[in-house]
Structure formats: structure tokens, C-alpha cells
Amino acid sequence: MTITFVGHGYVGLVTACVFADFGNKVWVVGHTPEKIERLKKGDPLIYEPELRELLVKNLKAKRLLFTLDFDQAVPEADIVFITVGTPTGKDGEADLKAVFDVAQKIAPHLKKGTTVVSCKSTVPVGTNKKVEQLINQNKANEARVLIASCPEFLREGTAVADTFHPDRVVIGSDSPEALKLLLALHKPLKSEPVVTDLASAELIKYAANSMLATKVSFANFISLYCEKTGADVETVLDAVGLDKRIGRVFLNPGVGYGGSCLPKDVVALIHTGKALGLDASFLEAVDAVNDLAKDNFYRKIIEHAPGKQLAVWGLSFKPETDDIRYSPAIYIIEKLLEKGFSITAYDPVAMDNVKRVIGDKIKYVSEPYEALKAADALCVFTEWNEFKAIDLNKVKKELKKPVIFDGRNIYQLSALKKLGFTYFGVGRSL
Ligand code: UGA
């Protein structure tokens, strides 16, 4: 099959590489010449484990092609996936400008005969129907378009593995012909496909991300109870999670959820829910608890830090990515700077992106221990493996005061106690 992706962010690029790896011919369309040139040379533009190798492999095999030109990539496509961003608009709604723009741009280039067009970007119910209308208004008479929705569930940091081994593949369309083609495309994936109507497929993605956000906010809410009562949040949630109906995954308390997906999708679902006349207070509470988690940790630092010089480990919104969009670390750092704190930070891959956002307002160092020199306390915001396996003896030696603010509960309380640390975790204490 020939597949065309418009957009080369996390979803577009990773999925394009995986479908190319299965032997399809895959075009990827972008609109920034410099980025397309870098992609053609095998530079994935983002840090994502295994992605560079997969990109290079499929470029070499000439199955993966990058272009700026719709006329080159669209006419031979059997399926066109729209994979552009849907950021948060000014009232919390999903901003669909880029999606509709792409729909208009691809329409005149569709071949004579049938092409399936599907959004892989996360879009509210009804968006694919609007895409269909826009294409029909702008296409040539001989072109026939069938619309489908194939939401993507990959996570940053494990995007390649998730795409090769998804928990489920959701394919929604009101056209049996489109469903047949998409089922054939996804056949090499071993997971059971969920075949639905268009609207259900669109909603599944929002429901899934909102459920994940709900679990995290629930864990963070319980951690606040623990801090008031002396209960230990890890013990509580371990026991709660033993119930198979609940499970322990995605119940890790911390400094709040971030990234370009959970925060954006929760507020978009609140927005569309309200537009439909629904009371969205359930999801508003999920969102509010997330703010509470970030602010609670920030307050802990300003109340208990023994001085104004802080070492920070972890800047990305989660480990194994350089993505800092809606990163709780950046939110808290900016508030600490306003309060007059000085910060020396280390992150394995996200520092270049942080420099572009907050520049030299903080200092950056190239290895974790260096950040500790002359620091009054250590703050951990992201649970990179290298921070978990750190030598706590050395941490104690380097810090001016043995104080740790552990925003991801990664350290063992017994070890910290033995070494005489003062420790502030999330929902637990020494
Ligand atoms: C999320 C979903 O997990 C994917 O299934 C979805 O495809 C993707 O959004 C998307 O819509 O494109 P992602 O944003 O990459 O993926 O990251 P997650 O692993 O979901 O983590 C989100 C945030 O929640 C992170 O800040 C993480 O630190 C936080 N989190 C996660 C917790 O605080 N506690 C947990 O137990 C789990």
C-alpha cells in the first residue's frame, strides 16, 4: 500500500516509520524546508528511543520519503493520515485549524478513484465529518474520499515499542470499504482491532486519556490525605492496586501530569462536554487536582528549603523524552525563580529545549552530581533511571544540607533515614 502522513510530530513520524517497516511505501509531508531536509538525512528531530534507527533503516530501504509537496505525496496514496497538532485553543477547546487546513490542501491532489482519509491526531467527535465536507468541497470530481478515524495511543518515551505492540487498534468508519482497507494495513500488528463507527472512535481517544488523567489525579488526591494524616501513599496505593478491578498501573503520585496530551485532552473534553450541555465538573476536578499537585510540591519547597540555591534533576514531563510541553518541572521552576531561588539543573536530554524557553535564568550542568555543588537542597522532578540508581552517600557529601524534595517518590525511605537525610516526598515521609 502507499500511505501518506501529513505532519511529522511524535504520532506522524513514529507511525510512518512503523508502517514503512512493514513494507508499505510511505510519504511524509511537512511544511518547514529545514526540518524536511534533516528528516531526509535520518535526523528524527525529537529524542525518542529506537526512532533514529528505524528512520534510517526505512530511508535506506527507500520505503520512507519526505517532501514539502502535496502533489508529490497525495496522488498515489491509498490512505492519507492527518497527523498535525491539535493544541489547546483560548477557551480550552482543541484548536483544529491545522487539521482543516490540511484537509483543504490535500483535496485537490487526491487521485481519480478512492482514497481513505483519516485523522490520527486527537480530534473531537464530528471533526472527521468536517474534514470530509471540506475535502468534498475542494476535490476534483473524479476523486472519491472515504473518511475514517484511527486514533493513536502511543506514549512518548516508548512510542516505537507502543506502535509495534499496541494494546488495541481502533478503526472507526461508517464505510465498510474504508474499514476493510484499514484493517488490511493494520494486520501485521498482533493486537485485536476494535472496529467502530466514526464518532465512537473519536471519543475513545479522549475517554482513554481522561481516564489516565483521572487515575493520576486520584493518586495525587490520596497523597494529600496521606500528608495530612501520616499515612504512607505508596503503601495505600499498593494495597488498593492489588484489587484486580483497579490495578496499580498509572496510580503513581507525583508533581502532576504534564505533556502535550493529558492536560490538553482533559480540558478539550470539558469544553466539548459543556458545549453539549453536560455538567463537566467531574473532569474539572481532575484538572484542578493536577494543579493542586504541582502547587503543593512548590509550596513544600518554599516552606522547607534551607536556603535559596537549589539543584534540580529532571526537566522533561516524564522520563525518556526531551519534551517539556506542560512539564510540571518548568511550571515549578518558574515559580521558584519568582521567589528568588537560584537553580542549577540537569536533565539527560531535555536541557536544550529548556534553554529555548527559559534561557539563562537557570544554570545547566552536564552531569547530575555537578548540580549539587553548593546547593542547599535537591529537587527531583522527573524519574529518569539514572536518578534512581544514584549514590546517595555522594549526594549527601556534595549538598550543603542533606535535604531532598522527591517529586516522584523514587528513593527508599530506609536508605534516606540511615544516611540522615531530611526528606520531602509526595504523600509519604521518613
Ligand atoms: C499519553 C497516553 O498515555 C497515550 O496513550 C496517548 O497516546 C498520548 O498521551 C497521546 O494522546 O498522544 P504521554 O503524554 O506520552 O501519553 O505520557 P503518559 O505516559 O501518559 O504520561 C503523562 C503524564 O502523567 C506524565 O507527566 C507522567 O509523569 C504522569 N504520570 C503518569 C504520573 O504522574 N503518574 C502515573 O502513574 C503515570
Shape: globular
Strand content: 5-15%
Average pLDDT figure: 97
Give the distance, in angstroms, between the N- and C-terminal Cα atoms. Answer: 59 Å
Overview of this protein structure:
The protein is of the alpha/beta class. It has helices at 10-21, 33-40, 51-60, 70-73, 97-106, 127-138, 159-164, 176-186, 198-229, 233-241, 262-275, 281-304, 328-338, 351-358, 368-372, 385-388, 392-398, 413-419, and strands at residues 2-6, 25-29, 64-67, 79-82, 113-119, 143-149, 169-173, 193-196, 309-313, 342-346, 363-364, 377-380, 403-406, 422-424. The strands form two sheets. It has an eight-stranded mixed beta sheet with strand order 3-2-1-4-5-6-7-8, with helices on both faces. The protein has a six-stranded parallel beta sheet with strand order 11-10-9-12-13-14, sandwiched between helices. α5 packs parallel to α6 (127-138), α9 crosses α11 and α9 (198-229) packs parallel to α12. The longest helix has 32 residues, at 198-229. It is globular. 46% of the residues are buried. The model has no long low-confidence stretch (mean pLDDT 97).
Key attributes of the depicted protein:
alpha/beta; eight-stranded mixed beta sheet; 430 residues; binds uridine-5'-diphosphate-glucuronic acid; 18 helices
Quick recap of the structure?
The protein has 430 residues and is α/β, with parallel strands linked by helices. It has helices at residues 10-21, 33-40, 51-60, 70-73, 97-106, 127-138, 159-164, 176-186, 198-229, 233-241, 262-275, 281-304, 328-338, 351-358, 368-372, 385-388, 392-398, 413-419; strands at 2-6, 25-29, 64-67, 79-82, 113-119, 143-149, 169-173, 193-196, 309-313, 342-346, 363-364, 377-380, 403-406, 422-424.
